[in-house]
Amino acid sequence: MNKDFLALSQFSKSELDAIFTLTRELKQKQKRGEEHHLLKGKTLAMIFEKSSTRTRVSFEVGMYQLGGHPLFISTKDSQMGRGEPIKDTARVMARYCDGVMIRTYGQEIVEEFARYSSVPIINGLTDLHHPCQIMADLFTVIEHRGSYEGLKIAWVGDGNNMANTWIEAAAIFGFDLTLACPKGYEPDAAAMQWALANATSSIVLTDDPQEAVKDADVVNTDVWASMGQEAEQNKREKDFAGYQLNEALLDLAKGNCMVLHCLPAHRGEEITDDVIEGPHSAVWDEAENRLHVQKAIMATLMG
Ligand code: CP
Ligand code: NVA
């Protein structure tokens, strides 16, 4: 298996399905209060160049539950913020720690870190991908629907890191994906090209939210301005008009559809309060599953 967890495209379906199997086992053990110290005595460094609530807490708690030790590092309080090269930081960290989780801007930063590190590197979100989140989302779909096989998954909104990772996931797992993104906010072209070349399922990009949501089993959205795009907020609010996930749009999906949002959500922008608080919303299970799925990822790579 690949040493690092930087993008889903580095893994086969069977490797990722094995992570879901371990996730289920670890979740059951945690619920039953059974010890599962698969990473006893091991240390995970968590490097954050962007803000986080879920990623930080779920990795930190997860490492503790696995019998290991998590270490929070903010780039601005470390020598990374003063320009120490990534390749130097990576080699030093690997001398102390058994794994490193990084949340940063460019995908090339996590890739360079991984190239110079002898220990596993886990992508905790970059501008390009959010692989731990999509694994948690898919695990939530499996829990609620039994499987992702044969489902139509819809994405409405920005062609951002979440959308790019959903595109890779559709090609790997073989479910249908339709994305509705406004013109100028399309997903990463290389991710799309890779997926279309490898997919057996249908992966469709449109600018029509109604087409995407029609008869969908799972409807997903995310913020209109991601971290690092705060200055574009006002322009994006105008450009994304009509892309709000509200009751009227959700009515086009299947009657038993699930609503996902990786959080944090902006109620009244990309999603309405009645949808995120409504009967189709699985966002709290989704957030919880970050913990369980990341424990399985860490145990698989670092165990
Ligand atoms: N969904 C997610 O990654 O949340 P945080 O930004 O709070 O970590
Ligand atoms: N697309 C969002 C996801 C946050 C978890 C961002 O990158 O800010």
Automatic annotation (TrEMBL):
Predominant place of localization: cytoplasm
Family matches, as Pfam families: OTCace, OTCace_N
Single GO MF descriptor: amino acid binding
Segments passing through the bilayer: none
Record has Transferase as a keyword: yes
Catalytic activity: carbamoyl phosphate + L-ornithine = L-citrulline + phosphate + H(+)
Binding site for L-ornithine: 161, 222, 226-227
GO BP term, example: L-arginine biosynthetic process via ornithine
Record localization: Cytoplasm
Keywords: Cytoplasm, Transferase
Limits of the Aspartate/ornithine carbamoyltransferase Asp/Orn-binding domain: 149-300
Cytoplasm keyword on record: yes
Family to which the UniProt record says this protein belongs: Belongs to the aspartate/ornithine carbamoyltransferase superfamily. OTCase family.
Protein's job: Reversibly catalyzes the transfer of the carbamoyl group from carbamoyl phosphate (CP) to the N(epsilon) atom of ornithine (ORN) to produce L-citrulline.
This protein's name: Ornithine carbamoyltransferase
Annotated organism of origin: Geotalea daltonii (strain DSM 22248 / JCM 15807 / FRC-32) (Geobacter daltonii)
